[in-house]
Amino acid sequence: MVQRESREGTLEDVDAVTREVLTASRLLVAVSARSLTAVEDRVTLPQFRMLIVLSTRGATKLVALAELLQVAPSTAMRMVDRLIATGLVDRRVNPDNRRETLLRLTPEGRRTVEEVTARRRTEIAGIVGRMSPEQRRALIDALGAFNEAGAEPPAPVADTEVSPLGWQ
Q: Longest Cα pair distance anywhere in the chain, in angstroms?
């Protein structure tokens, strides 16, 4: 009987944590969407992730970019074509292998990543700033454990650094 009660308590804890994480993920998606409002006429959230990956990785082949974003190469190509049309990405021949094409951010693409990331960081800092110091410490511990369990690399510390997976 003790095992069952313990097991039920564990299930309830998992459900409670899952519910709170889902709520937090909605908040973070909303923050992400709001951070894109100034560029929403040119960039969708998935396209912004592509810009982040290019910002982090530098010049990248289409197939590698598709793998990093976990999309089909044809989907990545459509995204790239749209970003090229908006002037945020360009396509160049690989100087080391002229049969390959590399994709990279334009200066406007880099500026867009920096501006959106700064808006996102400011809004998150405002939310965290409304928490008590004790709550912030608990959040650091809880999110650290959550990120570790999910094998997510640490987010960058400086405003100019970006996550290798495109999440801020």
A: 69
